[in-house]
Design goal:
By secondary structure, the protein is of the alpha+beta class. It is 27% helix and 21% strand. The strands form three sheets. Strands 6-5-4-8-9 form a five-stranded mixed beta sheet. A three-stranded antiparallel beta sheet has the order 1-10-7, with helices on one face. A two-stranded antiparallel ribbon has the order 2-3. Helix 2 links the parallel strand 4 and strand 5.
Length: 184
């Protein structure tokens, strides 16, 4: 496992389109999942301890953000050949276990992860209603262990600001996690 941090937010960067299969048997595109006040695109996986530490908080925040017109999609781009826990069947299991309120899709070719410049899991990209990047930071102070209850909800607060104003906070703390498992 290689620990990575996300780069600084490139404010205004346009969200690349995608067309990916979900664990529910449907296909999802950028415009099809965008909410009226924004979109959270996140790169996650099943095996990463950083994701496991925050998956319940991701579900909570995505569910609450939906009430503010911000929708979300979770993309799994790791190569499951070396990480069987990240297989499509296991993606289905994880989505059901945690009752994902967002589509969980597979970027088998890894083209979408490359287009976004994803570097780790979790990697969060928060877009406004014009699908311009406004947030590229962490969920909260969690690392490989879940942070204590009551910590600042960085991602949630940032996306509420994006929903209200169309702009994200200028100061953002990078997300960190396991590196994307690229195909050879």
């Amino acid at each position: 496992m290689v620990r990575m941090e996300t780069p600084v937010c490139d404010f205004g960067w346009p969200a690349p389109d995608f067309d990916l299969p979900g664990v529910d048997g449907k296909r999802y595109s950028l415009k099809g999942v965008a909410g009226p006040n924004g979109l959270l695109v996140m790169f996650i996986c099943n095996h990463c301890p950083y994701v496991k530490a925050v998956i319940e908080r991701i579900v909570r925040d995505v569910d609450e953000l939906r009430q503010h017109g911000v929708h979300a999609i979770a993309i799994m781009a790791n190569d499951p050949a070396d990480y069987p826990e990240d297989s499509f069947d296991n993606m289905k299991r994880v989505a059901e276990q945690y009752r994902f309120p967002m589509p969980y899709v597979w970027d088998e070719s890894q083209a979408v992860a490359r287009a976004y410049g994803a570097v780790c899991t979790p990697d969060f990209f928060g877009f406004n209603n014009r699908l311009e990047l406004q947030y590229r930071g962490r969920l909260d102070a969690s690392r490989k262990e879940t942070a204590p209850e009551g910590v600042r909800r960085d991602l949630f607060e940032a996306m509420l600001e994006v929903a209200r104003t169309g702009h994200g906070p200028k100061d953002q703390i990078p997300s960190m996690g396991c590196s994307i498992k690229w195909r050879a």
